[in-house]
């Protein structure tokens, strides 16, 4: 269904006062029962990511990192099985996966001879069993599986949903007997930036001539539309 701007702004305003948890999503669904879970989750994720970008810098000062690390250490000394990192992230209003990254980097800086590379950090976040400290590995794992908006688990889900929507779109085009070229075929022809599909015979939709289609499995707010226009759509429009 099409969401009006007023409806979107009401949902976005509601999200200002709720933490990024699954419990908050359930409350959101109760308040806006006419909206699908997928729509609410997508808006929820986008609004939270905007918040994280606005507050990112304050969590990465040397003072903040050291404060978080010392609180983590004191917390696991008291009870290593308690969700110390997850509770710290929620208290600081910061994404659990990003808090886990901060603490993991600080831990490795203290215990390794050389500073950890980004690839090493990413690998440990994807598979916490690689972390040389069992308690920290468990703390990082708790953050990853409880993060609704960031982290390797969320990235995998987003990638799978994006691929699913491309497959659904391909099936619809085939069902309508429309002739098209997909990304792989376009790259083979030498295109570097390509939409998901170029229609070999354009079609008219609601008075507009459609030459190409780009599938985005996320909610299209004004901010994301502007970003996609700048990063992708104008180049597609110029070329296709």
Automatic annotation (TrEMBL):
Keyword tags: Cytoplasm, Nucleus
Organism of derivation: Erinaceus europaeus (Western European hedgehog)
| Keyword Cytoplasm among record annotations | yes
Record bears the keyword Nucleotide-binding: no
Q: Tell me the superkingdom of the source.
A: Eukaryota
The entry's protein name is CDAN1-interacting nuclease 1
Q: What is its main location?
A: cytoplasm
Record Pfam families? TPD
User: Where is this protein found?
Assistant: Cytoplasm; Nucleus
């Amino acid at each position: 269904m099409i969401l009006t701007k007023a409806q979107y702004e009401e949902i976005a305003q509601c999200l200002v006062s709720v933490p990024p948890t699954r419990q908050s999503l359930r409350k959101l669904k109760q308040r806006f029962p006419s909206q699908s879970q997928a729509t609410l989750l997508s808006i929820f994720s986008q609004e939270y990511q905007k918040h994280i970008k606005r507050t990112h810098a304050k969590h990465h000062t040397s003072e903040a990192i050291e404060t978080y690390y010392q609180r983590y250490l004191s917390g696991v000394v008291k009870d290593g099985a308690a969700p110390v990192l997850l509770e710290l992230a929620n208290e600081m209003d910061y994404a659990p996966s990003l808090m886990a990254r901060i603490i993991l980097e600080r831990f490795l800086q203290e215990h390794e001879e050389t500073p950890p590379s980004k690839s090493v950090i990413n690998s440990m976040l994807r598979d916490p069993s690689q972390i040389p400290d069992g308690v920290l590995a468990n703390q990082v794992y708790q953050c990853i599986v409880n993060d609704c908006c960031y982290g390797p688990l969320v990235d995998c889900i987003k990638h799978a949903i994006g691929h699913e929507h491309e497959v659904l779109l391909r099936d619809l085009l085939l069902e309508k007997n429309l002739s098209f070229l997909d990304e792989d075929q376009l790259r083979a022809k030498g295109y570097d930036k390509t939409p998901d599909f170029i229609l070999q015979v354009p079609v008219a939709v609601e008075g507009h001539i459609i030459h190409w289609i780009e599938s985005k499995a996320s909610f299209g707010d004004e901010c994301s539309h502007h970003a996609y226009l700048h990063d992708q759509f104008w180049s597609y429009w110029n070329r296709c």
